[in-house]
Amino acid sequence: MTQISIAPCNGPGAEIGNVDLSQELSEEDFSTIRQAFADHGLIFFRDQNITPEQHIAFAKRWGDININRFFTPVDGYPEIAEVRKEPNQTTNIGGGWHTDHSYDAEPATGSILVARELPPQGGDTMFADMAAAHDALDDETKDKLDGLEAIHSSKHIFGGEAAYRSESDAGERLQNANAADALDDVVHPVVITHPLSGRKILYVNAAFTVGIRGWSQEDSMKLLMPLYAHAAQNRFVTRFEWQPGSIAFWDNRATWHYALNDYQGERRVMHRITLEGCALH
Ligand code: SIN
Fold it and tell me: Are 230 and 56 in contact (CB under 8 A)?
């Protein structure tokens, strides 16, 4: 039998080959993939042809599925969130650097995103390696971040008054969501220790981090904005070009991601399953 291959990308992530996710994986193959996920925080699969049921079965091998409280699910599959942009929409979902679910007390482990309908060109997703971004900080900055906690919120994105909901047409996809589900803000360390790899991770993001606990808004932004510019440098980024049959599985604790919105007038449909996570320290 052909062995699973693991080919590291030029930037963060690795491409897993010689595997068919429509079939039930042996324990050995699953443990190879699990190790690659722990090592790289971001894995890709190509040329897969999986049904929604097989997508769900693969996700369940990793743990419990988080039923997304903001996204419209795929018809008949509450476990699968639909990430869709129609030709007449101008805004997309995820069109800026962010970490899904950092606004939760126990942020989701990660998401398994399956390409269902792609534009002829464009629609790539970028991923940034937040362990590498942390490691490359100078010692003075690392010392400054030590012990700091950041406040994360979903209210300004998903809450009743959120611009994302009211002003953007991507917000149409959130029409079924209950604004009250934008729960209370949460606090996480600015630098966490990754639960799988043990690496230090810069765990703040421009979409959901709204400040540093105990700091003014101005001082918080003075600290955060240079960190965002630092982490978004090309040297920490992989740009994933989707093809029919592509799947990306990212670790939310280890990466940021950014869905590029450069395919105006075309349709893009993705199926996303998100896995429950744990408290971060
Ligand atoms: C997301 O932010 O989860 C969407 C990513 C994508 O559509 O590429």
Answer: no
| Residue 195, beta-bridge partner list | none
CA 216–ligand 1 middle distance (angstroms) = 31
- pLDDT tens column, 125-169: 999 999 999 999 999 999 999 999 999 998 887 766 555 554 455
Both tokens assigned to 198 = 């043990």
Domain ranges of the chain: 5-275
Give me the chain's average pLDDT, please.
Answer: 92
Would the pTM of this model clear 0.85, i.e. be above it? yes
Instruction: Specify whether 101 is catalytic.
Output: no
**Nearest atom, ligand 1, residue 92 CA:** 7
Is the distance from the beta carbon of residue 66 to the nearest atom of ligand 1 less than 6 Å? no
Q: Give tens-digit pLDDT for 169-225.
A: 545 444 445 555 556 799 999 999 999 999 999 999 999 999 999 999 999 999 999
Q: Indicate if ligand 1 lies below 6 Å from the C-beta of 131.
A: no
CATH placement of domain 5-275: 3.60.130.10
Buried b or exposed e, range 64-82, using 16+ CB within 10 angstroms = ebbebbbbbebeeeebbbb
**pLDDT score, position 152:** 97
